Amino acid sequence: MTNHEHTEHTGSMKAYIIGFILSIILTIIPLLLVLNHMMAKTSLTVSILIAAVLQFAIQLFFFMHIREGDGPRYNAMALILGLVFAVTIVFGAIWIMDFNYVVQ
């Protein structure tokens, strides 16, 4: 019988605090942009989407420890597949809503 070591993935308190502060900043920036009407509609939408993608990356790296792990990266492959599904659904919904006026 082999003895497997169980390693627990824990991050440092400094990394959690940095991730939390960055998450708060990336939440406040789009909120201020929307509440103060600082941009046109298209640029506002793009800036919100950029903040959302950055927020997603921060969550993955600082809190979900996506870089940690040994062996095959099944979690990373599942994440990529989930992203493909999400992007397909979002762009499909936008495409359907964009061409809705043709049907009416």
UniProtKB/TrEMBL annotation:
GO biological process, alphabetically ordered: aerobic electron transport chain; electron transport coupled proton transport
Source species, domain of life: Bacteria
Subcellular location(s) per record: Cell membrane
Transmembrane portions of the chain: 15-38, 44-64, 76-97
Chief place where the protein resides: membrane
Coiled coil: none
Pfam family membership, one: COX4_pro
InterPro entries tied to this protein: Cyt_c_oxidase_su4_prok (IPR005171), Cytochrome_c_oxidase_bac_sub4 (IPR050968)
Any one GO CC term of the record: cytochrome o ubiquinol oxidase complex
Topological type in the membrane: Multi-pass membrane protein
Keywords from the named record: Cell membrane, Membrane, Transmembrane, Transmembrane helix
Gene Ontology MF: a single term: proton transmembrane transporter activity
Similarity comment: Belongs to the cytochrome c oxidase bacterial subunit 4 family.
Name this polypeptide is given: Cytochrome o ubiquinol oxidase subunit IV
Organism (species): Neobacillus cucumis
